Amino acid sequence: MPGQRFVRSAADVVLTFTVVTLLSFLLMRASPIDPAEAFAIRNSLQPSDERISELREAMGLDGPLIKQYAAWLHNAVRLDFGRSLVNNKPVLSEFAATVPFTLRIVALSAAMQALGAILLGCLGYRYRGKGIGSVVRFVTVAGVSVPSFYLATAYLDTIAVKLQWIAVASGQGLLRDWHPALCLAVPMAAFYGRMLTGILVKEMEEDYAVYARCQGLGENYIMLRRGLPHALLAMLPNFMQSIGFAVAGATIIEQIFSVPGIGNVIVTSVVNRDAPMIHFSILLLAAVFMLTSRMSDAARTWLNRDSARGNGQ
């Protein structure tokens, strides 16, 4: 029943958010670094025991953990996530200012991933067993094996510093965002390119492909007009779910390229022990993963339903 599925889905979301945010409070308590002490040192205050106790009380960190979590949860329901311990600005506004930067990078990266995967997948299938196919296979394996953060570091060191072909600090909008987006897209494009090749091999053995060959249609035409659409639909759920991983991967990439996005704010908050910012960042990442997971499940359900309808006809 749709109503029951909605209730289970809502309960799953609430349970996931509760567990994730509670874990963030537990990890903050287990950490040997006290946010109040870090605040005192950062602001050149005398970190005496009395001073740290006053700061801990002012920050609401002096009570039991469950009381702190209950107070935070009560305010979070009203979209009040507190203020940053670094600049005393509202947490929500601090993250809202960074969202456009990360969204542009992730969206551009997703487009690069799709185009790169289609190109590598089609080439890998069309030239399988040949020299070009071996080169494509090597490129995909190498692309998957190289972490995006290492690729970003090497990209800056080689392209920007040694060769001085580009100035990554200049430009606005897409002119600046395509550098980190490219480094973020390469491993996933290689991964999905390799996956697409395998799916194309299976699709091109289906009855509709055999029938098209009997009609005298060329192999490239059958692959692009018949096999590729079916293969892309089969990959759609996994690709949508990977967007959440792209947001998480952008955390380090943004730090390397000095992009003032969500990832940069998260890293800065962790370094400064900014508890309100850390709690919200964990909640935000959990929300992104939950959203992309639901999108993936919806796409998979739609594809299965469409396939069942086709079989019924």
Can you offer a commentary on this structure?
It contains 13 helices and no strands. With 313 residues, the chain is an all-alpha fold. Helices cover 80% and strands 0% of the residues. The chain folds into two domains: 79 residues, no CATH class; 177 residues, MetI-like fold (Orthogonal Bundle). The two termini are 24 Å apart. The C terminus is likely disordered.
The CATH first-level class of the largest domain comes to: Mainly Alpha
- Which fold name fills CATH's third level, the topology of the largest domain? MetI-like fold
CATH superfamily of the largest domain: MetI-like
Total count of domains:
2
Shape annotation = elongated
Architecture of the largest domain, according to CATH?
Orthogonal Bundle
Rg for CA atoms: 24 Å
Helix content: over 70%
Give the CA-CA distance, first to last residue. 24 Å
**Average pLDDT across residues?**
83
Query: What is the element string, with H for helices and E for strands?
Result: HHHHHHHHHHHHH
Instruction: Count every beta strand, where a strand is a DSSP E run of 2 or more residues.
Output: 0
How many H/I helices? 13
> Stretches where pLDDT falls below 50 for ≥5 residues?
308-313
Largest beta-sheet characterization: none
User: What is the SS-derived class?
Assistant: mainly alpha
